[in-house]
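Hi support team,

I submitted a single chain yesterday and got back a structure, but I'm not sure I'm reading the token output correctly. Could someone confirm the output below corresponds to the sequence I sent? I've pasted both exactly as they appear in my results page.

Thanks,
R.
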Amino acid sequence: MTCIDLVYFDAGGGHRASAQALEAVIREQGRPWQVRLVNLFEVLDPQGYFRKLTGMRPEDLYNRRLERGWTLSFRQELKLLQAVIRLAHPQLVRRLQQHWLRTEPDMVVSVVPNFNRALYASLASALPGVPYVTILTDLADYPPHFWIERGQAQHFICGTPKAVAQAYAMGYGPAQVHATSGMILRPDFYRPLNIDRASERRQHRLEPALPTGLVLFGGSGSAAMLGIAERLQDTQLILICGHNEALAAKLRALPATAPRLVLGFTREIPYYMELADFFIGKPGPGSLSEAVQKNLPVIVERNAWTMPQERYNTVWVQEQQIGIVLRSFRSIRRAVAEMVAQLDAYRARVRLLENRAVFEIPDILAGILAQAQEPAQGPGQAGTDAAALAGKT
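Hi R., thanks for writing in. Yes, this is the structure output for that exact sequence:
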């Protein structure tokens, strides 16, 4: 059976979620493939030395900072991280080479940024001819060295015309760049719920007729939700805090004149989005795509604290005219008033967007596998010295 490795990590929730969603659809489609989910950091640090030394996993530091909103210096820290990865390149490649030689995949698919140079070089030198694919789980690349590396005999799967254009600009051609209709979403976002929304709202002590916002800032919530809730005391809200129970307790204690539902971690995001009329949150590619799939226009923020790789997402929101981009959530009352006044128009534009990426990608992977089995080299492979690339620092 053909063996496909999906490489992810837990820095943010979107990479694991994308890998799991793709694995689920491949299984549902009955593809003759064995799909293995590979946590990159467990391969690079199988003994957990980082956790033993610091008391946390490498991705925990990133996730805790997101939870607290400490994102102002992320652009500079990203450059430092990329410099460290470049210095460690030979060691990373050697560790990954050992993994590929031991596990022998027939294809490797990455849904992680920053490490694609080491992943590709290790695979190309350890198992020549095994195809390597990068699926961008952002709406666009944030060059340099984030998603798209130059001069690698690999494939890219891109969810927006912007990302496709970026791959072309890096020297890749149509045989290596594959467009989809959006970001990967869990299959349950596509399953009709067929619920009586008014009745379901009543069960949660929400008023059936009131415009309702869903506030969501990823799996760990965000302190920004407190300010939003304080400014929207008279707006009916569903606030989802993820694993941040302390934040949920603070939100439940806030006074409000309109009904609100405060939740901790839940896997029923599609259901609660079905009960809402619009979305308020950070401009993450996953959250935005989930909201759009459930026909919710969005209100997001863009300023110095916005993650650098997520800033294009706010441009995309404006280009598609599916929401409001604020400089600060201090203006959230005005934005909600504008959204409610034009809700029908916003929702009509949201409904024009159709994202079937998670169902499109298995066909793309099947085509890449078939191409890899052809005797001739594919476009862009000639002249690539995998051994030299693996040894560069």
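A quick pointer for reading it: Residues 357-372 form the longest helix (16 residues). Let us know if anything else looks off.

Best,
Support desk
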